[in-house]
Amino acid sequence: MTEPRTDIAGVILAGGKATRMGGGDKALLEIGGQSLLARVFERLAPQVGPLAINANGDPSRFGGYGLPVIADTVEGFVGPLGGVLAGLRWAAGLGASHIVTAAGDTPFFPTDLAARLRAAAEEKGQPIALAATTDPERGLSEHPTFGWWPVSLADDLEEALTVGNMRKVIVWTSRHGATRALFDDCGPYPFFNVNTPEDLAFAATIAGEHA
Fold it and tell me: Does the domain at residues 8-209 carry the CATH identifier 3.90.550.10?
């Protein structure tokens, strides 16, 4: 595994509403006796320097993870871009140049995520890189909660969210140049995310297969 860079911060996006799970914190649901968040933490922590959780509400519910909890800086639920912005502001305060984001409900993402996102951005000369996979039937599938983001774009993102009322990740990233890092060699479920109780049961099956 590539050694992590201390100037790269990691942000676990755990601020979703989990409406299809009946509300609450999806990231705190467990598979195989371990929360989704713990599994995401274990995968992302070795790849980055400082690491934080993006979530709104009472931060004490994440107290057992020993990580800073950063809330959205834009009022109202604005989706993943709100978490990206909060992460960029937090990372800038630490002197980091970029953040790598991972979704808190997606526990099987690649252990070389950060290195490959960074490599894709640098190879293409683009400021942003997003994870993607290809499917024989559906074609390219983008996973925009898994990305490489420069802190230098924080002001632009804040304006897009507050003045432009933008919510879609791909719309904003396309303005600034975003490349895709393909992860087609990482097995069948690298970006499987838990949205429903059925997904949670299937994730438990995947976790058991990889135990």
Answer: yes
